[in-house]
Amino acid sequence: MEQRREKGYTIVGVILTVIVIGILAAMIMPRFNRGYLIRVNVYNTTHRLVMDLRRTRRLAITKARNYVLEFFSNHTKYKVYEEASGPGGVEEKTIPPGVSCSGTNKFTFTKLGTLNGAVNGSLSFSADVYQNGITVYRTTGRARLE
Q1: What pLDDT score was predicted for residue 141?
Q2: Largest CB tally within 10 Å, which of 22, 76, 89, 104?
Q3: Mean pLDDT of 53-81
Q4: Quick check: is 62 in a domain?
Q5: Which one, of 140, 144, 55, 133, lies nearest residue 93 by Cα?
Q6: What is the dihedral of CA 112, 139, 115, 134, to 10 degrees?
Q7: Which residues, in sequence order, are CB contacts of 72 under 8 Å at separation 6+?
Q8: Rounded CA gap, 112 and 60, in Å?
Q9: Rounded distance, CA 37 to CA 94, Å?
Q10: Residue 114: which residues within 8 A CB-CB, separation 6 or more?
Q11: Range of the domain at 56
């Protein structure tokens, strides 16, 4: 009588495969650590605000009216709106949780694209040890990353 040999995986083979996958995952995980994610969050928030400041300035120039980017709720939310119409009914944007923002509360751009006010505007973003800043120059209205 012939014995049939069953095909399949042994428990030892399955355990070794799981161990190897676990070791590979442990080697990859430090790249996605918390510090890296926080730094990316601060970087992305800063760049999004610079783009919104530039868009606000561009709106003021193209429509020949004053446009405002204003912060509310202790620098956790902001709106872009035409100065004459006020902030009502405009979409509100939010600063992500964990990122703190401080600095100028209101940026008003004139129809020439300059910043309305006597001094340059500035914003600072931070989370843990990571920090980024934005300066808006009064004479040109240019928003620059610091």
Answers
A1: 92
A2: 104
A3: 93
A4: yes
A5: 55
A6: 130
A7: 78, 79, 87, 92
A8: 7
A9: 18
A10: 138, 139, 140, 141
A11: 41-145
